[in-house]
Amino acid sequence: xxxxxxxxxxxxxxxxxxxxxxxxxxxxxxxxxxxxxxxxxxxxxxxxxxxxxxxxxxxxxxxxxxxxxxxxxxxxxxxxxxxxxxxxxxxxxxxxxxxxxxxxxxxxxxxxxxxxxxxxxxxxxxxxxxxxxxxxxxxxxxxxxxxxxxxxxxxxxxxxxxxxxxxxxxxxxxxxxxxxxxxxxxxxxxxxxxxxxxxxxxxxxxxxxxxxxxxxxxxxxxxxxxxxxxxxxxxxxxxxxxxxxxxxxxxxxxxxxxxxxxxxxxxxxxxxxxxxxxxxxxxxxxxxxxxxxxxxxxxxxxxxxxxxxxxxxxxxxxxxxxxxxxxxxxxxxxxxxxxxxxxxxxxxxxxxxxxxxxxxxxxxxxxxxxxxxxxxxxxxxxxxxxxxxxxxxxxxxxxxxxxxxxxxxxxxxxxxxxxxxxxxxxxxxxxxxxxxxxxxxxxxxxxxxxxxxxxxxxxxxxxxxxxxxxxxxxxxxxxxxxxxxxxxxxxxxxxxxxxxxxxxxxxxxxxxxxxxxxxxxxxxxxxxxxxxxxxxxxxxxxxxxxxxxxxxxxxxxxxxxxxxxxxxxxxxxxxxxxxxxxxxxxxxxxx
Length: 591
Hints:
CATH class of the domain at 225-459 and 476-582: Alpha Beta
Distance between the termini: 152 Å
CATH topology of the domain at 225-459 and 476-582: Beta-lactamase
Radius of gyration: 37 Å
Mean pLDDT: 87
CATH architecture of the domain at 225-459 and 476-582: 3-Layer(aba) Sandwich
Largest sheet: 7 strands, mixed
Number of strands: 25
Oligomer: single chain
């Protein structure tokens, strides 16, 4: 019996031991697991848990401001509200489209289509002012909400639109200085990382880390806002007075190349403009007018400068010693044929047959008389002494045929049309044909004469702030294109044009003014010249010490105002008078 009991005890004991062993192993496993979780893996698990509760948000930088030369704000960013709808929550999408859309100036039909398109989120109108947004929210319409969104505003309105340009709905520069300096104005985004609770709210004592956004730089332009306003008003008045398509003005400070004013008419509102238009030349009617309002012809438009080009031709001949102002050019007729048969065929393409604007008897004329009376034939005879090679060298030296480097978008380079084998192109170029330039290029060329022969890069931004808030001036390039002696002679010749020649309407009381008129025929679709003109005037003041150059271009005025003296010179006088006043330039007591 005892042996049998002993055997049963042993088996039970074994079973119990096995069970006990499993229990011990289980507890050891659980203990190890607990040790692993709480000790060995604790850092990783804590990190994973934290990461699940962390949220990262981008911090948008504040876009930089744009100022005029006197500290007046031309562009800045302000907080606004964007209204949106959750269509599934709307009780009546049609009512929202008609009533709320109508109140906000939104097309009701288009809004209704978007509200019923199946989208879960629809903007009603973006970037409205806070008061307007709140008035809509106060209606208590279910499914309509708002969120903050910055918007760009332009306190000067249309006055500086051709300078500042504009940004799109997302705040990205699309035109003007907003585009040229977009990266600098935008700044660098920051980020905020914070720990949130289950309901998504930040945990006040939780983890947080903020990398501040770096705001965009501020731009300090060379523009004088009161002068800019006067230039635009004078342009608008000129378009109405002459029946022209458009008018464009640029004013430069002679010594520095600073652009004091740059504007035109028609104009556009930078706060409502969001997209870039196609080329204006392919449009007609109202679409063309709208496009012209947007296009900055001062920098992007090219035209044949006509007689204003004669400044370069005569300056080159003086600089090369081929003539002086008293040199007599014999037998200056009112018509010159360089291509056989051109004049008999009444070929008006200005490649072979050249005429003076006013008919006159053949006579001897001095260089000074030729320039003052703007004789095409006399100027061609002067250019003949230079020859094409040297004439082209001076045209290029004065900056025509290549971009000036002005800090603006899509600057045109212009055209120098000297075809291979064309042995008379020099004659057309001498009087402002076969050459296409921008108003900015012509202003810079005249400024070089006013600056004692020193050409300087025109520029819109005088300085900008760096990341530390310090002011960085804009670097400019300079080059000597003619001697100071030749430049001063040309200044006096320009003064004669205004005093007793074709530019008399460009005079400014109290100052000696110098300038040159220009009248050039426009080219039609068939490539031939039409009876439509582009009238221009470029000049400087005071002649005793030139401070300002103003260039004016009137595009396609009515026939009674077809010349530069009739259409453009009065605009020049108004803008120049204001410019001299703004710069406090002492009158030099001209009669």
